[in-house]
Amino acid sequence: MPDLSPPLGALLASAPPDLSDAEAMALARLHFGLEAEPKRLTSERDLNLLLRDAKGAGYVLKIANRAEPHAVTTFQTEALLHLESTAPDLCVPRVLRTLDGATEVTLANGSLLRVLTYLEGTPLHLAPRSGTQRRAMGRVLADLSRALASFTHPAAEQDLLWDIRHAARLRPLLPSCPDPASRDLSLRCLDIFEAEVAPLLPTLPWQVVHNDLNPHNVLVDPQNPDAVAGVLDFGDMVRTARVCDLAVAAAYQIDPEDALGSLTAFVAGYHEAYPLLPEEVDVLFDLTATRMITTIGIASSRAASHPENAPYILRNFPAARTGLQALTALPRDAARRALRQTCGME
């Protein structure tokens, strides 16, 4: 099994914190004054509990993985505080302060404890999809990215495996892929990324980005699935090329029956709210495939190392495999022209 050595892979190689519900509730009561019924939420790295108080208000108690540096956890907390002050209309979790007014608590084992508000809505992966919804999601991501553009933090420079600018490092993970066809296709796309895309990334606009707008991190209105109701999970934030964030999100918008149409609908929404440069548009198609490769490589390796958590780790694998097949079936030059036309550049 490939060695996910620090700093790049230490967090992914570490199991989530182990704490009983009773212990977690004692912490919530002691530090936040919360009396609530707990419900465990799935998480690849952290311990997350949904808490509902007597009035029905929801909160998420989060205990960070001990392998995650405190600065990285604080980076996430301060980003949410920044969004609360600069973009209050964005539907993202809010940070609940302790009884002493703090935003985080350091536990005896060194982990950081936080509580965030719980957002209501239907997870995107359980909702019907449409072009209107994709366009709306593009606008929401653009609004989020524009708000984060003014945010800085030392931990934003973290070396993150999920940052697709590091995709070349995934080559040793791809042999873990159980599907030979997906493995071979991933390797061919990785060759393109290394030769044609990676050298251009340093020349493009950079900023702090969300970096994980997958269908499990987006909520929609149950009564109107075309309306985005919330964006979750800021655990993969990083400072990178802005277009990488768009590519990450676009990778989850591909409809195998209409790969190009679904991609352009999403990109159109983003470009309307936060205009892209032509140079960003030209690498977007290949970067979208690169995110799918990243999902395939990391998920395959992680599932093999942690079979007890494999169903959660592999939750996005089938969509990545199908999406990569559909995306790479398109002629690259024609797809890039279509994206330029979508953004009014041709």
TrEMBL record:
It comes from Cereibacter changlensis JA139. Catalyzes the GTP-dependent phosphorylation of 5-hydroxy-L-lysine. It comes from the Bacteria. Keywords: Aminotransferase, Cytoplasm, Kinase, Transferase. One of its GO terms (cellular component) is cytoplasm. InterPro entries: Aminoglycoside_PTrfase (IPR002575), Kinase-like_dom_sf (IPR011009), Pseudomonas-type_ThrB (IPR050249). PANTHER family: AMINOGLYCOSIDE PHOSPHOTRANSFERASE DOMAIN-CONTAINING PROTEIN-RELATED (PTHR21064), HYDROXYLYSINE KINASE (PTHR21064:SF1). SUPFAM superfamilies: Protein kinase-like (PK-like). Its EC number is 2.7.1.81. This is Hydroxylysine kinase. It catalyses: (5R)-5-hydroxy-L-lysine + GTP = (5R)-5-phosphooxy-L-lysine + GDP + H(+). It is found in: Cytoplasm. Residues 48-275 form the Aminoglycoside phosphotransferase domain. Gene3D superfamilies: 3.90.1200.10.
